[in-house]
Amino acid sequence: MGPDDCAGDGAGPGGPAAAARPGGAARSSLHPDPDETIEASQLNLRLWRGWLGPAACRELQARLLESIAWEQPQVMVYGRLHAVPRLVAWYGDPGCCYRYSGLLHQPQPWTAPLAELRHLLADRLGLDFNSLLLNRYRDGSDRMGWHADDEPELEPNHPIASLSLGASRTLRFRPRPRRRSQEIASPPAGGFDLELADGDLLLMDPPTQEHWQHGLPARLRLRRERLNLTFRRIRQP
Ligand SMILES: O=C(O)CCC(=O)C(=O)O
Question: Does ligand 1 lie within 6 Å of residue 135's CB atom?
Fold first, then answer.
């Protein structure tokens, strides 16, 4: 993950086209249609609202808060160490190492609730993830800067699945900019916002990460916590 990837306003394509799909009867349990598909130039997102129900979300969030080995890495910015503004944890199959926040992380072994989610995603979406980054935003001042999930160790042709739990937050997208700019306070030209709520599942399909960045701005008056789980596929040697 490279939250310090950056830069300018990027003369990107226009806003994305969002298509609401009827859910309910048309859904099958195996490959259910998403509630929304969001398409723009070189961007493909699929969104299932309330993919996990409220009771399952509450239980899962409570289990993760107590069982995950949360860390707050320090990153060097202009020669000074800063704690990243959130807590993180990396889980995965043996050997699935991942560099984020400038540090190489060895995977923790899958815990029971994480392994269940991984298998649910495989059953429902037919996607085989081998690793997972968890982000814990303790309140609205925790956040994540602009970045793309495009590190060399990630399988480039594999979607990334992002599950949100707890407080709603805005995930902001922008076309990959040409100039350096970390400003994330308002939606950039050619970009758009997605509000992600408890239980929502977002699939970011290739080649989105090659052409777009995303980030999670602060929401200062928010006091509630949010967890986000991004399932990924690390390249196998
Ligand atoms: O918290 C979120 O929704 C975004 C997480 C994210 O961008 C990431 O893990 O790369």
Answer: yes
d(CA 12, CA 175): 5
**Domains in the chain: boundaries:** 34-232
Sheet of 212-216: strand order equals: 144-147, 212-216, 169-175, 192-196
pLDDT > 70? residue 201:
yes
pTM (predicted TM-score): 0.86
Q: Taking the mean position of all CA atoms in its chain, how far away is CA 169?
A: 12
Report the atom number in ligand 1 closest to the C-alpha of 214: 7
How many Å apart are CA 52 and CA 201, to the nearest integer? 8
d(CA 213, CA 124): 27
Task: List, for residues 57-115, the tens digit of each pLDDT value.
Answer: 999 999 999 999 999 999 888 888 999 999 999 999 999 999 876 788 899 999 999 99
CATH 2.70.40.10 fits 34-232, yes or no: no
Ligand 1 atom with the smallest distance to the CA of 196 is 3
Please tell me the distance from the alpha carbon of residue 90 to that of residue 135, in angstroms, as a whole number. Answer: 9
For residue 1, pLDDT over 70 is answered with no
